[in-house]
Design goal:
- The chain is an alpha+beta fold.
- 20% of the residues lie in helices and 37% in strands.
- The protein is built from two helices and six strands; from the N terminus they run βαββββαβ.
- Strand 3 and strand 4 (49-53) form a beta hairpin.
- Helix 1 (13-22) packs antiparallel against helix 2.
- The radius of gyration is 17 Å and the shape is elongated.
Length: 112
């Protein structure tokens, strides 16, 4: 089992969710986060004063899938979240040792 964490632009969230749903991914955790990478923030004007916005709004998706589903899931995220501009985001894939569904006690792939 693998955990896929994707940091994407907020306006791409609905497209990504729909693409994942089409390939059978039904569960995910979504968080509103802030951060920056090579984008390094930007300047904005507020009440006539210019100031630096260091942390940009992003959306973080967390999905746990079987090892066989990883490539399809990653490809769906890339195809729908990519704009070709700086700040499109990142995808991190890590191993998951164990999953337990609290309600039923099911474990691992049965719990996904």
């Amino acid at each position: 089992m693998k955990k896929i964490e994707a940091i994407i632009k907020p306006f791409k969230m609905d497209d990504v969710r729909e693409a994942l749903s089409e390939i059978g991914i039904s569960g995910m955790t979504v968080s509103e986060v802030k951060g920056f990478g090579r984008q390094k923030g930007h300047t904005e004007l507020y009440r006539g004063a210019e100031y630096m916005v260091d942390f940009l709004p992003k959306v973080k998706l967390e999905i746990v899938v079987t090892s066989e589903q990883v490539d399809r899931c990653v490809n769906a995220i890339i195809e729908t979240a990519q704009t070709g501009k700086i700040g499109d985001g990142k995808i991190f894939i890590t191993d998951v040792e164990r999953v337990i569904r609290i309600r039923t006690g099911e474990e691992d792939e049965a719990a996904i």
